[in-house]
Write a structure and sequence with these properties.
Layout (H helix, E strand, L loop, with lengths): L3 E7 L3 E7 L5 E8 L11 E2 L1 H18 L7 E8 L5 E4 L9 E2 L7 H8 L8 H4 L8 H11 L4 H5 L3 E4 L1 H10 L3 E3 H4 L5 E2 L4 E2 L1 H7 L8 E3 L2 E6 L8 E7 H8 L8 E5 L3 E8 L10 E6 L7 E8 L3 H11 L7 H6 L9 E3 L17 E3 L7 H27 L6 E4 L6 H11 L3 E4 L4 H14 L5 H7 L2 E5 L5 H16 L7
Parallel strand pairs: 1-5, 5-14, 9-12, 15-21, 21-22
Antiparallel strand pairs: 1-2, 2-3, 4-7, 6-8, 10-11, 13-14, 15-16, 16-18, 17-18, 19-20, 22-23
Helix pairs in contact: 9-14, 10-12, 12-13
């Protein structure tokens, strides 16, 4: 019997492969970063071929660290940076250009054009999403409009579009498929029908012939070739939905927040999509083959961990990301300083591409310690805004928050988050929940694990932070944070 489930996590800054055993424990992992390509201000690209080469490298590395062969792997699942857009030639397999990354804002004029007199909610009823540079459908349109001689081949199905899950599944199996979670981030899928919407594809200008087949998140898509020869490729989930699944948020009302490059708060809303009136996204949460889909509400925050990287690389205040906590602990508060990192606009709940980052409240008293603390508070305040919007949409206030991702190692941030939300913050024993979610879904698809109840029974708590901040202080500081947010707006004409 195969001993492991493999998970490929194709992220914004790196690709990883992890092997999990029957108990859901990490047996081995390998990781490799890829280049961030910035051709112009606001443009962010990745090289799909570099990413594919790195994925093969980390698969080999993880197998070697576990002293395992492909025969030891029951299935492989994929989780991926969402919305990042690749178009490739169906015959040669070569991309026609670099991938346009989810953070990229080059489609801002197209977004305004598509909104017309209706504005950002023009397509929300069908796809659950506001018009924003974040999503992949308009990125496809931009590539078709700006690269010579590609529109006709795309209309004939000679060019294929995919998010990173589709790119990797195609490279592994030769099949052009995507899952419901990734398809729900394109602005091209009808949320209720879970299929491409003719009105949306026509309005946005993306030929149906270049779109992948939409499948459940946990299902065998095909057999891998190459490094994982013969292993079933059996799941795909966008990274945040994978974290929801890995945190075993299988019941309506259960939710999690992942702190990575950005922060993403998702709550399970059950078998029906819940329309947001407070700036959140309605999205597919996951679907197990043969079962109804599960939907979620999501609040997407563009800049979290990347803010710490910016402070390290652009300001030089710290030499490594973990040092931000020690620097922030040199002061007792933010000294009146607030940092709103709207580097590429504001995501939920504002969806303002005209916003740009600000540091407010600077006086001669403020030190680099205060700035470091304001950086961590910025992550927590952005999460508070999303949590408030989620409570308003779902009609139920947050009672606790499950957290995961690299930033949960920062104890001060976790305490600040508990204080700012006024609820307990709980970190699981396995914080790599994106990989775990992809592994769980793949394992379900091939019978490695029998059911969701088995997965839920494996979840273990590692640490918990309880709120200690006085309520009056919390609301006063929240008011100042919101004033700082207002200073970011209308910067870009």
């Amino acid at each position: 019997m195969s001993r492991y489930i493999a998970a490929i996590d194709q992220g914004t800054t790196s690709s990883r492969c992890m092997l999990f055993d029957q108990a859901g424990a990490i047996v081995a992992a390998d990781q490799k970063e890829h280049r961030q390509i910035y051709p112009r201000p606001g443009w962010v690209e990745h090289d799909p071929e570099e990413i594919w080469a790195n994925v093969q490298t980390v698969i080999t590395g993880a197998l070697a660290k576990a002293d395992a062969r492909p025969a030891d792997v029951a299935a492989v699942g994929i989780t991926n940076q969402r919305e990042t857009t690749v178009i490739w030639d169906k015959t040669s397999g070569r991309p026609i250009a670099n991938a346009i990354v989810w953070q990229d804002t080059r489609t801002d004029r197209l977004i305004a054009e598509l909104g017309g007199e209706v504005g950002q909610d023009r397509f929300r009823a069908a796809c659950g999403l506001p018009l924003a540079t974040y999503f992949s459908g308009p990125k496809v349109r931009w590539l078709l409009d700006n690269i010579a001689d590609v529109r006709s081949p795309a209309e004939r199905g000679e060019l294929l579009f995919g998010t990173m899950d589709s790119w990797l599944i195609w490279k592994l199996t030769g099949r052009h498929v995507t899952d419901v979670t990734n398809a729900s981030r394109t602005m091209l899928m009808n949320l209720a029908a879970l299929d491409w919407d003719e009105a949306l594809t026509a309005a946005i200008g993306v030929p149906r012939a270049m779109l992948a087949e939409i499948r459940p998140s946990a299902e065998v898509y095909g057999q891998a070739s190459g490094t994982l020869a013969g292993v079933p490729v059996a799941s795909a989930l966008g990274d945040q939905q994978a974290a929801l699944f890995g945190q075993t948020c299988f019941a309506p009302g259960e939710g999690k927040c992942t702190y990575g490059t950005g922060s993403f708060l998702l709550v399970n809303t059950g078998q029906r999509p819940v329309a947001s009136t407070n700036g959140l996204l309605t999205t597919a949460g996951y679907q197990v083959a043969g079962q109804p889909p599960v939907y979620a509400l999501e609040g997407s925050i563009a800049v979290s961990g990347s803010l710490v990287q910016w402070v390290r690389d652009n300001l030089g205040l710290i030499r490594s990301a973990p040092e931000i906590e020690a620097l922030a602990r040199t002061v007792d508060d933010n000294g009146g300083c607030y940092f709103v990192p709207a580097f590429a606009g504001l995501f939920a709940p504002y969806w303002r591409s005209d916003a740009r980052g600000v540091i407010c409240g600077l006086t001669g008293f403020v030190t680099k310690g205060h700035i470091a603390r304001a950086v961590l508070e910025a992550v927590a305040w952005q999460t508070r805004e999303v949590a408030d919007a989620m409570a308003a949409d779902a009609g139920v206030p947050l009672t606790e928050l499950k957290v995961d991702g690299g930033m949960t190692a920062n104890g001060l941030l976790m305490q600040l988050q508990a204080d700012i939300l006024d609820v307990p913050v709980i970190r699981p024993a396995i914080t790599e929940t994106t990989c775990l979610g992809a592994a769980y879904a793949a394992g379900l698809a091939v019978g490695f694990w029998p059911d969701l109840a088995t997965l839920r029974a494996q979840w273990r708590k590692d640490a918990q932070w309880r709120p200690t901040m006085d309520g009056a202080r919390r609301e006063a500081e929240y008011s100042r944070w919101r004033k700082a947010v207002q200073r970011t707006l209308d910067w870009v004409d």
